[in-house]
Structures are given as C-alpha cells and as structure tokens.
C-alpha cells in the first residue's frame, strides 16, 4: 500500500491536501479586493461627512455674526445712516479745506469750480422751493413762518456767552425756582437789532395789506365794497366771455 502511494507521488499526481490549499488562496483574493473597496468607500463617505460638518459650522458662525450685526443695527437710531453719511461728508470737507489751506487756495473758489452749471441751477431751484412765500393762509401758519424766519437769523455770540457764564456761573441756567423778571438787561446792539427787524416787519406787512388806490374814472357797477370785490373776481374769470354781452347792454343793442 505504501509502495503504491509512493509510486503515485513519483508520477506527479497531487494528493488531496495540495489541491485544497490552492483553491482557498484563489477564493481569498476576491474577498480582499472587496474589503479594500469597502474601506475606500467608507473613507470617501467620512471625508464628505467631515466636509459637510465644516460647512455647517461655517454657516452657523456666519449666521451668528449676521444676527449680531442685525441686532446692532436695530438698536441704532432711525436716521443713523443719514447721520453717518453726513459725518463722513463733513470729514471730507474738512480734509479738503486743509489741503486747500496748505496749497494757499480758497476752498470756496475750488468748490465752485467743481460744481457744474446744471447742479448749481438745480440747487438754486431747490433753495427757492425750500421756503416759498405763499402768502397768508391762517394765523398758525403765519406764526410758524415768523418763528422759523427769526430763528434762522439768530447768530449766537460765543464770546458774550462765555463772559456771562463766568459772571453768573450756575445762575445762568435757570430752573423752576429762578426769578428771571427784571434780571436781564439787553445790550444796545440787541435793541438796535430788534428795532431794525420790527421795521422790516412793518414794511413787509404794509406791502401785503396795502389798500388799492381808488380810481375816480372807473365805472361804478357795485353797491358796496363787498360787491365791488365780487365783481372784480367775476370779471377776472369770466370777463373775456361776457365782454360782448356787456357792451350790447350798455349800447342798448342787446337782443
């Protein structure tokens, strides 16, 4: 029996154990490739997950910053943007003035050279529309207009203010317990300024409320002053339509 087995071995016939080990190696190779592919997919998914996680954190950070900025904007005054633009414009003007002063130039002249004729005309029209004189409408509007005109004319004297502040101290700022009657003595310049302003008011008032001169040669077609005003108004609006009828009535040729 042993001799037969050795003879078969010498002929090169593989035994049962040798054939089984070769087959297991062939089966292990596909399983290793599948495991490598699965690991690669897992790494790809982990990489995408990390990218999404980083994007989420970045979006969360940006949203928080935007919420903080919006809260700051809501806490600011309603006209903050206009005030900010105005301050920036004033800073630019100051810088421009310093540059002109350093070059020995007149800032007003340089500013006018940079303004076009169309802009100048538009500003002039806007300035005229800003406070148009529409005449008398009611006493409240007239009083408000007078108040605005007087306040625009006020030019504070800072030197006089400092002198009064040194002289009176805290008494310069009255309270509910202060006695003001008879304590203020106006200066001569202030009295002259008030008199000049009153004279201007009287002159302007006379122009607005002047009485029209009476014409003796005009036709009398009214019975009292109220009727005369009504006739003038009717003539102003309908005179061109009724001129021929009026002439026919005066000649006695009306049909």
Give the secondary structure arrangement, pairings included.
Elements: H1 2-10, H2 16-75, H3 80-103, H4 107-113, H5 117-130, H6 139-153, H7 158-168, H8 188-208, H9 225-251
Protein name: Pre-mRNA-splicing factor SYF2
Function: Involved in pre-mRNA splicing as component of the spliceosome.
Region (Disordered): 1-42
Fill in the keyword field for this structure.
single chain, 255 residues, 0% strand
Question: Could you characterize the architecture of this molecule?
Answer:
By secondary structure, this protein is mainly alpha-helical. It has a domain at 36-69. The protein contains 9 helices and no strands. It has helices at residues 2-10, 16-75, 80-103, 107-113, 117-130, 139-153, 158-168, 188-208, 225-251. The N and C termini lie far apart (165 Å). The model is unreliable at 1-20 (pLDDT under 50). Residues 1-42 are annotated as: Disordered. Residues 9-22 have a biased composition (Gly residues). May be part of a spliceosome complex.
Short description:
It is built from nine helices and no strands.
| Gyration radius from CA atoms, angstroms | 50 Å
Largest sheet: none
Shape: elongated
What percent strand? under 5%
Spell the H/E element sequence.
HHHHHHHHH
Regions with little confidence, pLDDT below 50 for 5+ residues: 1-20
Oligomeric state: single chain
> What's the β-strand tally?
0
Average predicted local confidence, pLDDT? 79
Helix-and-strand structural type: mainly alpha
The number of helices is 9
Main location: nucleus
Function: Involved in pre-mRNA splicing as component of the spliceosome.
Subunit structure: May be part of a spliceosome complex.
Organism: Geococcyx californianus (Greater roadrunner)
